[in-house]
Amino acid sequence: MAFWDYANPTRFLRLVQVVLPWLIGFCVLAFAAGLYMAFFTAPEDYQQGNTVRIMYIHVPAAWLCMMCYTVMSISSIGTLVWKHPLADVSAKSAAPIGAAFTFMALVTGSLWGKPMWGTYWVWDARLTSVLVLLIMYLGLMTLWRTMDDPIKAGKSAAILTLVGALNLPIIKFSVDWWNTLHQPASVVRMDGPTIHPDILWPLLVMAVAFTLLFFVLHLMAMRNEILRRRVRALRMRAASVSRPGTAAATAQPAE
Amino acid sequence: MELGTHAGFIIASYALCILTVLVLVAWVRIDKANQERALKELAEQGISRARRVHESR
């Protein structure tokens, strides 16, 4: 069976049923290991002290909020170029999850900033561009809810998502392009991480746990969206049967 | 374990993340239950995908 065969929603739902329990198991194990390492094996930072432990959730949340938008952007290309039946479902389902990760990144960063920087918030390029990302997520969620027709909503949202993707390199390189209070990259660098392995490893394990959590939630949300479109299609069919002539624009993508 | 003078900030950060994840999990589970209930109600009214597939043949 080719990868593209999973574009069929029924096959996709069967795949989700098989994969989801394994993903949930690995996710729980990764969180258990990551949290143990974060609190019991990782040392205090020589400057930050124990507040470095906030980094074990702040940094993965920040990575995931960008990864989630990248998934939405790829899905949007699938919607506009290939009209892939699951592409729009994927983009729509990822938006609330991305918004939640962005919210986590902003609030945990703020809670780290108060003891370390002396302020909860500063309008520097990194923080402001991540706030713009949160607004983009909320705007896209609103756009999907304002249109009844999921096909039209999906196309409009796909265009807006791709326009918003311009913000991703701004977030990533804001600490290099502008003089910001936020520190520059210390893990994903051309010359390798600048963090001591004792702190780096718990961070990477937590990043794996957050990534698995994203995939678990995304698959569950996609399954729900497919079911929602089936309900909508069946209700439209029932309405067209009870009122002949109102006809049947019932076929939905990912129905 | 001892979290030092900034324990409040650390605990608040983890508590907020746990709460956010719980809200997300509750959202997907409640949404799934709602959609499955709607499909079941439609099936009880004789409106189902199986019937549609049968009719189209």
From TrEMBL, chain A:
Subcellular localization is given as: Cell inner membrane; Membrane
**BP GO terms, sorted:** cytochrome complex assembly
Taxonomic lineage of this organism?
Answer: Bacteria, Pseudomonadati, Pseudomonadota, Alphaproteobacteria, Hyphomicrobiales
Answer yes or no on keyword Protein biosynthesis: no
Q: Domain of life, per the record? A: Bacteria
Q: What is its main location?
A: membrane
What GO terms are given for molecular function?
heme binding; heme transmembrane transporter activity
Tell me the protein's name. Answer: Heme exporter protein C
Q: Which gene encodes it?
A: ccmC
List the PANTHER family hit by this protein, alphabetically. Answer: CYTOCHROME B_B6 PROTEIN-RELATED (PTHR30071:SF1), HEME EXPORTER PROTEIN C (PTHR30071)
- Which UniProt keywords are given for this protein, alphabetically ordered? Cell inner membrane, Cell membrane, Cytochrome c-type biogenesis, Membrane, Transmembrane, Transmembrane helix, Transport
Automatic annotation (TrEMBL), chain B:
Q: Which UniProt keywords apply?
A: Cell inner membrane, Cell membrane, Cytochrome c-type biogenesis, Membrane, Transmembrane, Transmembrane helix, Transport
Q: Main localization of the protein?
A: membrane
Q: Could you read off the lineage of the organism from its UniProt record?
A: Bacteria, Pseudomonadati, Pseudomonadota, Alphaproteobacteria, Hyphomicrobiales
According to its UniProt entry, one GO biological process term is: cytochrome complex assembly
Which cellular compartments is it found in? Answer: Cell inner membrane
Query: The organism sits in which domain of life?
Result: Bacteria
Species name: Roseibium album
| Matching Pfam families | CcmD (PF04995)
Among its keywords, does the record have Transport?
yes
Cite a GO CC annotation: plasma membrane
Q: What protein is this chain from?
A: Heme exporter protein D
NCBIfam families (alphabetical):
cytochro_ccmD
User: Transmembrane residues, as ranges?
Assistant: 6-30
Q: Which InterPro entries match?
A: Haem_export_protD_CcmD
The task this protein performs is described as:
Required for the export of heme to the periplasm for the biogenesis of c-type cytochromes.
In the bilayer, the protein is annotated as: Single-pass membrane protein
What family is this protein classified in?
A: Belongs to the CcmD/CycX/HelD family.
